[in-house]
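Quick one: structure tokens for this chain, please?
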Amino acid sequence: KMYSSAVGHIDQPLQRQVAGKRQCNYSALFGIVLNGCTADRDDAGNLFVAPRTHMKFAEAYKKLDTDPLWYPRIAEHFFRRDLPRMQAVRAQPGQAI
């Protein structure tokens, strides 16, 4: 299921996740793997990303006449049928991502 960007999201504060309201996403995210098999398995609680979607979103946002708005299924909203495939970020315990 997580391999589909239709279930992905853009991180922003929960109280700002209102459909049709201005996006207020984070500039950067940081995490440290504490333990587990995240280096060996995709289903071990890994962070999933859709490579190069930051560029696809940037292109879509350039076409707007206003600030980008937040939608619950934002990839489907902006990319329609051209949904990028997500992949797990694999890392060893103690690694920073």
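The radius of gyration is 15 Å.
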